[in-house]
Write a structure and sequence with these properties.
110 residues; eight-stranded mixed sheet; four-stranded mixed sheet; 14 strands; globular
Length: 110
């Protein structure tokens, strides 16, 4: 398990996956009061490369509480198994992602 609380990932760059974080085979990832802002991929081909903030593959669950996603490109979260990219909106009160996709319970604009 990986648990983050009260941290900011800002202006990080990755070549082709996971601008801020790349998770592989993690059972559970929990982010509480975390900011993902301005993270992106150096690769410009957005048809093949995803996960401006987070790239996630492997069995497990992502959980977000009071977490903010802003200006991540080309998308906020990419789920490798299902090739599904998710834009969380601006602020996620409670949301989860698993091998079936993402469910962001409450997303609000600033």
């Amino acid at each position: 398990d990986i648990v983050l609380s009260g941290v900011t990932f800002q202006d990080n760059v990755a070549d082709d996956a996971g601008g801020a974080i790349m998770l592989v085979d993690v059972a559970r990832f929990q982010a509480t009061d975390v900011v993902f802002d301005g993270n992106h991929l150096a690769h410009e081909d957005t048809t093949l490369y995803h996960g401006g903030a987070i790239w996630f593959t492997g069995a497990g669950e992502l959980e977000f509480r009071d977490t903010r996603f802003t200006s991540n490109a080309p998308d906020d979260i990419f789920l490798g198994e299902v090739h599904d990219s998710c834009d969380a909106g601006t602020t996620v009160s409670v949301g989860t992602c698993d091998q079936n996709g993402c469910d962001f319970g409450t997303c609000t604009e600033p």
